[in-house]
Amino acid sequence: MDEDHVVSKAMKACPRCFEQVHADAEICRYCRSRIANAKDGQYVRVRAKTGDKIYRGDLFVGKTERISDTINDTRRFIILSNAKEEGKLSDISIGFLALNKDSIESIRLSETDDGKGSNNVRQIY
Question: pTM for the complete prediction?
Answer without folding.
Answer: 0.63
